[in-house]
Design a protein that fits this description.
By secondary structure, this protein is mostly helical. It has helices at about 10-35, 40-50, 55-60, 65-80, 100-120, 130-150, and strands spanning about 80-85, 95-100. About 65% of the residues lie in helices and about 5% in strands. A two-stranded antiparallel ribbon has the order 1-2. The N and C termini lie far apart (about 40 Å).
């Protein structure tokens, strides 16, 4: 594909390229020095946000296969970021939880990524708040399109 192709200037391609580059920057500036892969970081974030989820719940949220979730969990267990505990309500079910070290590391990563994002998004100047609002509306529109494919009630635009 040539650099003058109409496709590389479409919204979808630009968003894809921007997200891929942000992911690369996050990995190179922050995650590599900590020894965490981007996939492990995303899984750890999900565990943190979900509050003691099962592996199946994490997989559903991240759209990851059972085996891929198991691999990532295994890596995070070995690095001391996660622990597994049997559910008190259902002894067959195992719940994931960040360790104290895992939680502190995530907080450090969040701070570093937020600082890097501040510098990058400052190029938008006064248009930054409108950009954020547009991204939120786009997220809702995409969720609505996904819901319609699944035959579900789409979320409403705010």
């Amino acid at each position: 594909m040539t650099r003058n192709s109409w496709f590389i200037e479409t919204e979808v391609f630009l968003l894809h390229e921007i997200v891929a580059r942000l992911d690369r920057l996050a990995r190179k500036r922050v995650l590599d020095s900590i020894g965490l892969s981007y996939a492990e970081f995303v899984l750890a974030m999900a565990v943190n946000e979900m509050g003691r989820p099962s592996q199946a719940e994490v997989g559903a949220l991240l759209d990851m296969s059972k085996s891929l979730v198991s691999q990532r969990v295994g890596g995070l267990l070995a690095k001391g970021f996660l622990i597994q505990q049997r559910s008190a309500e259902n002894r067959r079910q195992v719940r994931l939880e960040l360790t104290t070290a895992g939680r502190k590391t995530l907080e450090t990563i969040y701070r570093q990524l937020a600082g890097n994002a501040e510098m990058l998004f400052d190029v938008l100047g006064p248009a930054r708040s409108q950009f954020l609002q547009s991204l939120r509306r786009l997220r809702i529109a995409i969720a609505a399109a996904e819901a319609s494919l699944e035959g579900e009630q789409p979320p409403t635009l705010r």
